Amino acid sequence: MGEDFFVEFEYTNIPYLIICFFGAISHIFLLNGFIKDPLKCFKNSKTYLMANLEVADLSVCLIAFCYRFGALRSHRLLAEILLSLALGSSAVTIVSVSIDRYFMITYPIRHRNFMTGKVTSLWLACIWLISAVLPSKFLIFGNKKYDLIAASVVGFILNFFTIAVCAFTGYNLKRQSRNIRLQNSAAIGIENRAQEIRILQEKRFLNTIILVACVVAVCMIPASIFHQLLLFRSLEEKIILIVFNSLYYINFAVNPLIYVMRLPNYRKTFLRLYVKRNFAVEQNHNVSQYSLDVPGRPARFGTTAC
Q: Does the pTM of the predicted model rise above 0.85?
């Protein structure tokens, strides 16, 4: 799409502006919940990765809003560089969350000891460095018309890898759950119960990540295919373009709603911060958190179940 399209059909930007605006607001609310943390359950590597995903998606919404509104129209290259950086960080972060959950489920003790605050910070820095590859290419070689095809292929591979890792993690969770049910000793009944609660929490979060990955595929694939067709044919179907582009932006705006609907602690955090409802921390949550900590030692970074 060129500049002429946006100049001629300015009214078509209205759906994108609305989606990006509400997406930015929802991401800001969720990031505020991470920072204030009223339930004291967000001090772990999973949450820091999720916060990084929120920052990346928030950046996409803000950049797209400014560009569609016309603020960055005279700085097209800058907008493309910033947008590519945010898009890359969003995709790589989703993959990172799935990998983090895999090691958390498969090697819980090693994960707890290894994923300190410093390691997580280094991981986040690596995500942004990897995401800077495509913007660096813009500065060195310029923007080629086939870049969108390459970006779509890479995005499809990352999305497929994410779902594959999540599926394998789910298989390990199911196997652990089956092993726990086979243990019927009364002496370790409390420990088994705590492990069952942890597995249920991990299953819920894992299903949420799979849902997020599916939303990425459903929202981004139609727009990618249509824009690739625009490279080779002169298509002017404005309605189809609006629908596909709207789906594209919805992908970066809808994640906070998915978290609030799917994850109880995210929902309670929202209600406590913005509706002023008080919730007592559930006893099962305390048992699950205690089961993940080493007796006699304070909780380490990354041990809190949320």
A: no
